[in-house]
Amino acid sequence: MRLFGLIGFPLSHSFSKGFFTEKFEKEGITGCRYENFPIPDIGQFPLLWKEHPQLEGLNVTIPYKQVVIPFLDELSEAAQAIGAVNCVRLKDGRLKGHNTDVTGFRRSLEPLLKPQHTKALILGAGGAAKAVKFALQQLGITYTEVSRKYCNGTIGYEAISKEIMDAHPLIINTTPLGMYPNVAEAPPIPYHFINEDHLLYDLVYNPAETQFMQQGAARGAAVKNGHEMLILQAEASWEIWNEK
Q1: How far apart (Å, rounded) are the C-alpha atoms in residues 222 and 129?
Q2: Catalytic residues, which ones?
Q3: From the CA atom positions of the chain, what is the Rg in Å?
């Protein structure tokens, strides 16, 4: 029996287990199971592999995406650049870390891109923003980062003018603003400058239409939430675990 799973703590709301259990059933994939491993300390990571010799791959969620790295033998190019791992594969006795958030985001964004979407505003400067930046680099899209905390190369929300909005028709929210239960919240950008050339992408997927998306849609912009990204990053993990 091939075993896969998810590590994090706590794991009360795991998308992954439900997704993979349903996938195995629906696609007739036999001899595989997916389990949650809510380990309270990353120090238990090596023990997990010893206790479960049939374990072939893991997804990694909060709070272990960075601290798992010293336990791995190698990293993919994306995981190395981002400094975060959300997928691990054991192959030939070696553990390799990957970042499938990049793949999920890129694959969900690509079909929506129009010729004008050559510059992006990235709202937020956390871990999710790093994956978004790497994917945009792969797509040849330049970006400006917007953050409440000033750091190298970012601008503040109050600096976003009509000129900046016009020059950046792709706007990506990587912050948790607007996520359930705080559904009335939205990133503080000047929504009145949005038009039908804009594409607003929200990494939040609960609710299905955030305040950020509603504001864009009301002005004719295309909008997208993060649900498909979640599915595609899980599918990308499955691809990695099954690569020859």
Answers
A1: 20
A2: 65
A3: 19
CB atoms within 10 A of CB 116: 11
Is there a single domain that holds both residue 121 and residue 183?
yes
| pLDDT for 150 beyond 80 | no
Which among 239, 194, 242 has a CA at the least distance from the CA of 219?
194
Mean of per-residue pLDDT scores for the chain: 96
Specify the pLDDT at position 35: 97
Residue 9 has what DSSP assignment? Answer: S
**Same domain, yes or no, for 196 and 156?**
yes
CATH number at residue 132: 3.40.50.720
176 Cβ contact list (under 8 Å, min separation 6): 182, 204
Q: Three-class SS of residue 159?
A: helix
Quick one: which of 105, 69, 106 has its CA closest to 86?
A: 69
Q: What is the mean pLDDT of residues 28-35?
A: 98
State percent of the chain over pLDDT 70.
100
Residues 6+ apart with CB under 8 A from 76: 96, 97, 98, 99
Same domain, 124 and 225: yes
The pLDDT tens digits for 176-223 are 999 999 999 999 999 999 999 999 999 999 999 999 999 999 999 999
Instruction: Please tell me the distance from the alpha carbon of residue 20 to that of residue 33, in angstroms, as a whole number.
Output: 8
Domain that holds residue 150: 103-229
Same domain, residue pair 142 and 224: yes
Mean pLDDT of 3-24: 94
Sheet holding 74-75, edge to edge: 32-37, 2-7, 55-60, 87-91, 94-98, 74-75
Give the three-state DSSP class for 4.
strand
Give the global pTM: 0.94
- As for how many domains the chain has, the answer is 2
